Amino acid sequence: MSVTKQFLAGIREILVALNGEGLRDWLKVEPPLPQEYLDLAAELKSGYQDDDALEKLVESSLPEDDDVPEGQGTSWFGFNAFIKDYLQYWRDVDFEDLLGAHQLLTALTNSCATALNNPTYGTIMLQTSISLCGSFSTLSMTLNKRPDLTSRLAALHSGDDEQKSFIEITAEIMQKFFTACLTDRSSPRFAPPTGKKVGIYVFANKTMKLLTMNNRSYLATQLLTNLMAKSPPLSYYPASQRVTFLYFLGRFHFNHSLYWRAAQCFQEAYLQTPSHYQKHRRLILTYLIAANFTMGRLPSQSLLQRPEAQSMAQCYSQLSSAVRKGNYIAFQHTIKQHEDWLRSKGYPLFMTLQWRIRPLLWRSLSRRTFLLTYAPDEEGDSRKAAVLKLADFRTVLTYVQRRLEGYVPAAPAPKARHHHHQANVNSYLLKAVSNSAGQPLKNSTLAPPPGGVKALMPDEGVLTGNMPVTDHHVENMVMSLIGQDLVHGYIAHTQGAFAIIGKKQKGSAVAAGWPNVYEVIEARSAEREIPGWVQDQS
User: What's the whole-number average pLDDT of the chain?
Assistant: First the structure.
């Protein structure tokens, strides 16, 4: 008996036994390979160049039985078409030709998806589908990193109306498997999954990973919508699938600037990952801390001292300190110092930490300015609102801008000797800072840069580049903070000040004007459900 006929006979035995794992192990598609597969490929190349002859061989070796005993299986049209494509794959594949191998594997994977859809025997294809999709995804990601090859493919399809990348093509095919599993009717929705439903999150995770790792996560929107409509609760699935899905769902929401949702996903994924899985916990924690940053929830030292946090501890610790103090200079220094590491974690994470936490810097700096300049009403009128003078805030922001441009301290600022002189000392300090912020004066606290004013990049200034801070900018900045509930009060235009509301109820102007950021965002962002995360019915 020829090698090909022996191979097909083995497949028939597996079908009769409904052995899905055995079928997966039998149908290999990539090296390393036993000698039998090399012999199969050689025989197919020499004796079965005619596709019609190959099809007849498959039909005769894998007949579709009409009367199948209970507990046994048989072939079907879609399965035979898949096996024919599988033999053609081994006849024509050249692993040195990655583009050619990808085209053959694309056709084979599509054929596998069709076979999986069979309502009676399709479940036997589940393990094979998972294995095949893993190989297909790996090859697609490899090709996506080879512009020399992708450019050749683009040239071949230059006349097409819509050109899709390897990743988009692979994701579309992967979602066919996901849909086949999602629409399986072997068990009720809110019950432990059986049949093909057990593969829902396997294919969801493969698709989400493929899209996320190649900056195409927006293409997962429909997949998540379908999950919310038809999937069993995530809690019914193995821990590895739950954690993987929650991580990539968190990445999806993070990439779409939905940080509260992302933080909930990352938090649950982190809690469900055992402590000895250091690599996985480190990856999740990298994005969990970043998501929490945007909501004013800064990492504690005890968290940053955990083994999985060592690679990020210095960067996140420095950013935390800068945010707490409103220290723009330390913030910019930290971003530049750790830029390579931040970019290696993805463009969305770098941009989030570069831009999205700036309102927290404004908030902290406005609070420090208030503490520096505010003097309680000497007449003791408790009805009078505490205010932050916008001119004072502009002075401080301009001072920071000058420091970023290279101005250096010329002399230490005078310190207060007695508490009751605080208002006068603060006024003096702000005057000195103001002198430094404008044209440098003699005996100023800042001196001009020896080599001239530094030309800042757009992301390096208080606003953008070397743009000077104006009254209009300051007012817009404070109004933005009010709109985000990061400060509590209103703009008193006639006084040129930010007036604080609720001093009497909170007990102090600081507590009233600068509420806890995370508590504010948590109260405003709480949702009944997170899109994509199917939870148990309550």
Answer: 89
* Assigned token pair, 253: 């929401």
> Is there a cis peptide before residue 32, judged by omega within 30 degrees of 0?
yes
Report if residue 454 sits inside a domain.
yes
Burial of 183 (0-12, 13-18, 19+ CB in 10 A): middle
Tokens representing 85 are 């494509």
Query: What amino acid occupies position 515?
Result: P
In three-state secondary structure terms, 8 is: helix
Domain assignment of residue 483, yes or no: yes
Under 8 Å between Cβ of 270 and 285: yes
- The angle at the Cα of 226, spanning 221 to 229, to the nearest 5 degrees, equals 130
Question: Is the residue at 428 inside a domain?
Answer: yes
Q: Which residues lie across from 409 on neighbouring strands?
A: 446
Indicate the angle between helix axes 328-337 and 310-325, nearest 10 degrees.
160
CA distance 349 to 351: 6
Q: Which two tokens stand for residue 111?
A: 């054929």
- State the total domains in the chain: 1
Give 322-376 pLDDT, tens digit per residue: 999 999 999 999 999 999 999 999 999 999 999 999 999 999 999 999 999 988 7
Angle at 457 between CA 451 and CA 460, to 5 degrees: 90
